[in-house]
Automatic annotation (TrEMBL):
UniProt protein name: Cytokinin riboside 5'-monophosphate phosphoribohydrolase
PANTHER family documented for this protein: LOG FAMILY PROTEIN YJL055W
EC annotation from Swiss-Prot or TrEMBL: 3.2.2.n1
Family to which the UniProt record says this protein belongs: Belongs to the LOG family.
Length: 195
């Protein structure tokens, strides 16, 4: 087995703030560490602050491979003082950043965040709803963070403005998130396969 190349490129969306509880940073760090331990590449928004920084430092501490994608205008604002080593792709704007992160990823994991995170999550949700196979999306609940999104989906379904309810998965820990994406990405094994 080739152990040098990453297994999957996993894009993590999350806030450039830390949130109101230390638990958010703990989970973000753990996600970065586990992602690297399991030999996945981290694709993310190239930030060194907030949860973005915590995920990246977690991955870097364990020798993980990191691809950061960020527009020129955000680079100094979101780099902070503890940006770990990574390959950086500079983009002209936020739309290009989002497109490149989505193109480069096999699957998506979202931690809690603000408007930017919500925008990225909804981009993947709406692309999947349109039948574009961008990869599975797993949301990590740290403190019931995704309840309002689930309520919104229920509301859209109830009012006849959405048809699919299976556009993302919600889990309760970093480990469950990685278990979920790995099983969703694993090639199906044919029941009658030999060897
Ligand atoms: C696509 C455009 C506006 C929509 N807003 C955003 N789109 C993509 N990324 C964004 C947007 N606003 C902030 N961001 C970045 O997301 C990261 C996480 O931010 P959060 O708000 O803490 O969740 C961070 O890098 C933000 O800069 C305009 O064309």
């Amino acid at each position: 087995m080739d152990t040098s190349s990453p297994r999957y490129a996993l894009c993590v969306f999350c806030g450039f703030s830390t949130g109101n509880s230390p638990r958010y940073q703990q989970v973000a760090t753990e996600l970065g560490q586990l992602l690297a331990d399991r030999r996945h590449q981290l694709v993310y928004g190239a930030g060194g602050v907030g949860l973005m920084g915590a995920v990246a430092r977690g991955a870097a501490d364990r020798g993980g491979e990191i691809l950061g994608v960020i527009p020129h205008f955000l680079r100094s604002r979101e780099a902070g003082h503890h940006l770990p080593p990574q390959t950086v792709v500079l983009t002209d704007d936020l739309l290009d950043r989002k497109r490149i992160m989505i193109e480069r990823a096999d699957a998506f994991i979202a931690l809690p965040g603000g408007y930017g995170t919500l925008d990225e999550v909804l981009e993947v949700v709406s692309m999947t709803a349109l039948g574009l196979d961008v990869g599975p999306l797993v949301l990590v609940d740290v403190a019931n963070d995704w309840a309002t999104l689930r309520d919104l989906v229920r509301d859209l379904l109830g009012r006849g403005f959405a048809r699919r309810h299976d556009l993302f998965h919600v889990v309760g820990s970093a480990e469950e998130a990685l278990d979920a994406v790995e099983s969703l990405l694993a090639p199906a094994v044919a029941v009658n396969s030999v060897g």
